[in-house]
Design a protein that fits this description.
Elements lengths: L2 H4 L5 E3 L14 H11 L5 H16 L3 E5 L2 H14 L3 H4 L11 E5 L10 H7 L3 E5 L7 H5 L6 E7 L12 H10 L4 E4 L8 H5 L3 E5 L10 E5 L1 H9 L12 H12 L8 H13 L7 E7 L7 E7 L1 H4 L3 H10 L3 E3 L9 E4 L8 H19 L1
The structure holds pyridoxal-5'-phosphate.
Length: 371
C-alpha cells in the first residue's frame, strides 16, 4: 500500500507521461533520500541558493542558475528579472510595472495553456504579453514590428503544447533578439536537452524539475549571470510566494547530477513497450506498434490501435474504464479520437505494464460477456 492509499486515495498507474496532474515524476531512491536528508537538517538558504546555482551551471553549461518551484514560477521570475533587474525598489513594485519596460513579445502560437495560461505567468512577473502574428502563422515582420521602446524581452516556447507549424524558429528569435539588444527567455519546461539552448545563446532557459529531469516538484532557470542574479533577487519580491524549499532544491540537484546516467534508457523503453503491445498480437481489433515521440525526443511509446467494429469498444470507452478502475490506469490520449492509445514507459514503475495488460484483457472480456 503506498502512502496515498493509506490516506484513502486510489493507486495510480501512470502510463501517460510526466503529467503535472498525476504528480509529474516519481523520483528514484537517490532523489528520495536527498529529499528526506535535506528536510531533517538546517542550512543557510542564501548559501544554498548560490551553491545550487553553481551545480545548475555545471550541468547546463550556463554561467549561473536559479532553482524555482517549477517552470511556471520560472517564467514569472524570468520576466520580473528582465523588467526590474536586481533593483530592490523596482522589484518590490512588481507585478505593477507602469513606467518600466514591461512588454514581453511571444509568437501567438506560443501563447499556450499547460495547465494554466502562460500569459498569466508573464503578468505575475509584471510583464505585458504581446502576441505577435496569428495563431498558426507568424512572420519575422510580425515580431520585429511588435518591438517598441517598452519591450523588455522576447519569449520562445518549445513544447508539444505550442503550434508546431507556421512559427518562426528559435534561431530567428535569437537573431531578432541580438539585432535589437533584447534578452531572449525560453520556456523549455519538458525538454530533455539541458545544454543546447544555453549554448545557442538563449539568455534565460527555464526547465521543470519534475518532468524530463526526474526530480521532485521543482524547476530551474539557467543562463546569463547578471540575469540569473536578478532572478534570485526576485525572492525578495514576487517570487516569495513561490519559495523553493531546501528539500526540493537538494532533490533537484541530486536528479541533475544523475541526469546523464538516467535509468529510462531507450533499450529498456523499447523492450517494455514491445512486450506490452505483443500481448495483444492475437486480439482481434487491437493492433500494436511502437512509435517515437511526436516532438522527436528519444521517447518510444507503445501504441494500441483500437478497431471498434472488431473489439466492440472504442478507444475512448477503453480509456474511461482504465481510468475509473482500481488501480486507476492513465494512458496518453492525444489521439484517442483516431482510435489510438499510447503508453509512455518512462513513468511506469517495474512490472506495471503487466497490470495494464491484465486490466485491458479484463475490460475486453467484460464487454464480451455482456453482449
Ligand atoms: C509543464 C509546463 C510548464 C509548467 O511547469 P511546472 O514545472 O509545472 O510549473 C510550463 N511550460 C510548459 C511548456 C510546460 O510543459
Amino acid at each position: 500500500m503506498n502512502i496515498y492509499e493509506k490516506f484513502g486515495l486510489r493507486l495510480i498507474i501512470n502510463a501517460s507521461g510526466k503529467m503535472t496532474n498525476l504528480g509529474a515524476s516519481a523520483v528514484n531512491a537517490n532523489v528520495a533520500q536527498a529529499l528526506s536528508d535535506a528536510s531533517m537538517d538546517y542550512v543557510d538558504i542564501s548559501e544554498l541558493m548560490i551553491m545550487a546555482g553553481k551545480v545548475i551551471a555545471k550541468v547546463t553549461g550556463a554561467e549561473d542558475g536559479c532553482p524555482t518551484t517549477g517552470a511556471a514560477a520560472g517564467i514569472a521570475i524570468s520576466v520580473a528579472s528582465v523588467i526590474a533587474g536586481d533593483n530592490l525598489g523596482l522589484l518590490e513594485r512588481l507585478p505593477y510595472s507602469d513606467g518600466l519596460k514591461n512588454e514581453i513579445i511571444l509568437q501567438k502560437g506560443h501563447a499556450i495553456h499547460f495547465g494554466a495560461g502562460i500569459t498569466q505567468m508573464i503578468a505575475l512577473g509584471g510583464g505585458k504579453a504581446i502576441e505577435a502574428g496569428q495563431a498558426n502563422r507568424v512572420e519575422k515582420d510580425h515580431i520585429t514590428s511588435a518591438i517598441t521602446v517598452n519591450t523588455a524581452a522576447l519569449l520562445y516556447v518549445k513544447s508539444h503544447h505550442a503550434v508546431q507549424k507556421g512559427m518562426q524558429s528559435l534561431e530567428t528569435m535569437l537573431e531578432i533578439a541580438k539585432e535589437h539588444g533584447l534578452p531572449l527567455i525560453m520556456d523549455a519546461a519538458a525538454e530533455e536537452d539541458l545544454k543546447g539552448y544555453v549554448k545557442k545563446g538563449v539568455d534565460l532557459v527555464i526547465y521543470s524539475g519534475g518532468k524530463a529531469i526526474g526530480g521532485p516538484t521543482s524547476g530551474l532557470i539557467c543562463g546569463r549571470a547578471s540575469l540569473v542574479k536578478a532572478c534570485r533577487a526576485q525572492f525578495k519580491g514576487i517570487a516569495r510566494p513561490m519559495k523553493v524549499g531546501k528539500e526540493a532544491i537538494m532533490g533537484l540537484l541530486t536528479a541533475l547530477q544523475q541526469y546523464d546516467e538516467k535509468v529510462d534508457s531507450v533499450q529498456e523503453q523499447l523492450k517494455r513497450m514491445q512486450w506490452l503491445v505483443d500481448q495483444f498480437s492475437d486480439t482481434p481489433g487491437i493492433k500494436g506498434s511502437i512509435i517515437q515521440d511526436e516532438a522527436g525526443r528519444e521517447i518510444y511509446r507503445g501504441q494500441l490501435s483500437i478497431n471498434k467494429g472488431l473489439l466492440g469498444i472504442d478507444a475512448n470507452e477503453l480509456i474511461m474504464k482504465l481510468e475509473s478502475g482500481h488501480p486507476a490506469i492513465f494512458t496518453r490520449n492525444y489521439f484517442a479520437n483516431s482510435g489510438l492509445i499510447h503508453f509512455d514507459p518512462r513513468p511506469l514503475l517495474p512490472g506495471q505494464e503487466e497490470i495494464i495488460v491484465k486490466r485491458i484483457k479484463e475490460i475486453i472480456l467484460e464487454r464480451g460477456n455482456r453482449e
